[in-house]
Amino acid sequence: MELSVLNIKGEDTGRKVTLDDAIFGIEPNDHAIYLDVKQYMANQRQGTHKSKERSELSGSTRKLIRQKGGGGARRGDINSPVLVGGARVFGPKPRDYSFKLNKKVKSLARKSALTYKAQSNAILVVEDITFETPKTKEIISIANNLKVGDKKLLLVLSENNKTIYLSTRNLQKTSVIAAAELNTYKVLDAANLVLTESSVAVIDKLFKA
Questions:
Q1: Which range marks the domain in which residue 58 is found?
Q2: Bridge-partner residues for 176, per DSSP?
Q3: What is the pTM of this model?
Q4: Euclidean distance between CA atoms 74 and 2, whole angstroms
């Protein structure tokens, strides 16, 4: 699949890049995508939730009513889970939600996500962007020139660039990522992928294996 390289004004530069069919033209695997996104979302969870059990509550341990003869159920101290303000039975405890996923499955998921974007013509290639200082207005202008200013964008760079990151930090619909950190969730979450010209070679090198 060939795409024209556009400049920051949205004009055709006359250069073309080829998106490898081994990455952008495979048979998508929806289950692999599901597993990879599930792992990504699980890894975002802090897992710090906690409720107090009976032994952790502060309160008198005095037995409230006698064991027999009261006509009601047996009842222990005021921390009993059956009482209002008492402890919680089998409440949440801090835990790690992450789980293992094979590298080949993750690779298949990323390629499947990129293939879906290619099939829907949601990939643009622009010449490399360089800023000396953070310029949010420039990023907005570039997006408008590419006619995707009203859509959710993922700008893929060949490597991390702090200046461009700072330029996009305040934009709700635009995020930036290095090609080496590209993941299935980010790809699917964006309406359009904007690849810089040099990032295409990095993606070919990393994802083709």
A1: 51-91
A2: 155
A3: 0.82
A4: 77
